[in-house]
Amino acid sequence: MTRTLDAEVAVPAQCELAEGPVWDAARGLLRWVDILPGHVHALDPVTGGHSSFEVGDPVGTVGLTRGGGLVLALVDGFALAGHDGQDLRRLGDFTVDRSVVRFNDGKPDPWGDFWAGTMAWQDESGPPVQPVPAQPGWRGHRVVRRRRAVQRPGLDR
Question: Domain range for residue 88?
Fold first, then answer.
């Protein structure tokens, strides 16, 4: 049995590589990123209002902070911003080699820590994917998961 579903475009945003939708319940907005041009979008489904801001580099994903702001996985590191993209500032001094990999997608874990994964610019020739948490106080502790060691910052709770 074949099912056919009807769909309609909610917003003709004309994104190049749109990913990472997240619902911002506090503001009633659907947020997502257009990775390659570095745009963070928001849609108000009630009014149809659509806004976006640029971060100046490719952006892998957007998440929400407890304080109502945004956490962003930029091309090579993490940043925090206000809910409207204002006051964008890097989080710590951790970076990845942006000539080889970029951040791609991310979500919070059950404890509220935000994790993003890296991926190679060239899928076949780059290093393996690496999950990285966005934590201040990077101390480079190693955790082993399924026989693969990944860098993980120390948890400052």
Answer: 18-152
CB-CB neighbours of 56 under 10 Å: 10
Q: Is residue 8 part of a domain?
A: no
Cβ(67)–Cβ(60) under 8 Å? no
User: Which DSSP symbol is given to 38?
Assistant: T
Q: What is the CATH number of the domain that holds 70?
A: 2.120.10.30
Nearest to 78 by CA among 99, 106, 50: 106
pLDDT in tens, 20-61: 999 999 999 999 999 999 999 999 999 999 999 999 999 999
Q: Report the predicted TM-score, pTM, of the whole model to 2 decimal places.
A: 0.76
**Who's near 145: CB < 8 A, 6+ residues apart?**
none
Q: Euclidean distance between the first and final Cα of the chain, in Å?
A: 52
Report the candidate in 5, 15, 151 with the shortest Cα–Cα distance to residue 77: 151
3-state secondary structure of 39: strand
